[in-house]
């Protein structure tokens, strides 16, 4: 290896994310949700979504940035989907498609949690006040403000007098996984019962 600055790829850690998705079956599970295309220019929708997920982890905040980050990894993953292809993919995700994706995620999650049980340290049970909560899955529910610089669809003024969104999310405290999320306008309440029930129901299905 020569330290000449050539042939280097930044953000190489994203390779591990793709490999994990492949190894645990997430890539294959998502791939089965969409029919393959007959054209040479067809983009596998599962790969488009996984590419977007990786780009978000690397810091992408919009589809253009996601395309640029994925292009940076072209030698590893091939030519990325364009931002317009990503936009069409997301726009095509109706309630039925989202339900199928959630079901596939839940199945893969069960497999991953089984693997966690088999490791030497076992599943990461939490401890509260010195007591180990074996067998307990703890879900954190939290709403957070995400500001927007422009009047995007679904935004509104927030209680902090800013402008943006106020999504509500559920996280597994044991594994730090995002289980479900509900995108809401900035003026949505922090304690809206219907929203809490909806996001918690989706989380429990995971």
Major sheet details: 3 strands, antiparallel
Which shape, going by the Cα principal axes?
Answer: globular
**Cα-based radius of gyration, to the nearest Å:** 19 Å
Count of distinct structural domains: 2
> What percent of the residues sit in helical stretches (DSSP H or I)?
40-55%
Q: Please tell me the overall pLDDT.
A: 88
Total strands: 8
Give the SSE order as H and E letters: HHHHHHHEEEEEEEEH
Residue stretches low in confidence (pLDDT < 50, at least 5 long) are none
Structural class: alpha+beta
Estimate the strand proportion.
5-15%
Determine the number of helices (DSSP H or I, runs of at least 4 residues): 8
For the biggest β-sheet, the strand order reads 3-7-8
Distance between the termini: 45 Å
Structure description:
- With 206 residues, the chain is of the alpha+beta class.
- 43% of the residues lie in helices and 13% in strands.
- The strands form three sheets. The chain has a three-stranded antiparallel beta sheet. A three-stranded antiparallel beta sheet has the order 4-6-5, with no helix packed on it.
- A hairpin with a 4-residue loop joins β7 and β8.
- α3 crosses α6 (83-91).
- It is globular and about 50 Å long.
- The N and C termini lie far apart (45 Å).
């Amino acid at each position: 290896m020569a330290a000449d600055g050539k042939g280097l790829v930044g953000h190489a850690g994203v390779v591990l994310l793709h490999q994990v998705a492949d190894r645990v079956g997430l890539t294959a599970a998502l791939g089965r949700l969409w029919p393959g295309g007959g054209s040479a220019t067809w983009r596998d929708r599962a790969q488009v979504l996984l590419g977007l997920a990786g780009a978000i982890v690397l810091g992408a905040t919009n589809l253009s940035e996601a395309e640029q980050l994925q292009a940076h990894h072209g030698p590893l993953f091939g030519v990325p989907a364009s931002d317009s292809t990503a936009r069409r993919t997301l726009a095509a995700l109706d309630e039925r498609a989202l339900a199928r994706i959630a079901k596939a995620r839940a199945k893969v999650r069960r497999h991953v949690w089984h693997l966690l049980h088999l490791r030497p340290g076992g599943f990461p049970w939490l401890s509260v006040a010195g007591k180990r909560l074996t067998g307990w899955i703890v879900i954190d529910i939290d709403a957070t403000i995400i500001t927007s610089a422009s009047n995007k669809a679904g935004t509104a003024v927030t209680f902090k007098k800013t402008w943006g969104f106020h999504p509500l999310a559920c996280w597994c405290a044991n594994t730090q996984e995002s289980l479900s999320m509900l995108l809401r306008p900035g003026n949505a309440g922090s304690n809206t019962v219907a929203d809490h029930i909806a996001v918690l129901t989706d989380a429990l299905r995971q």
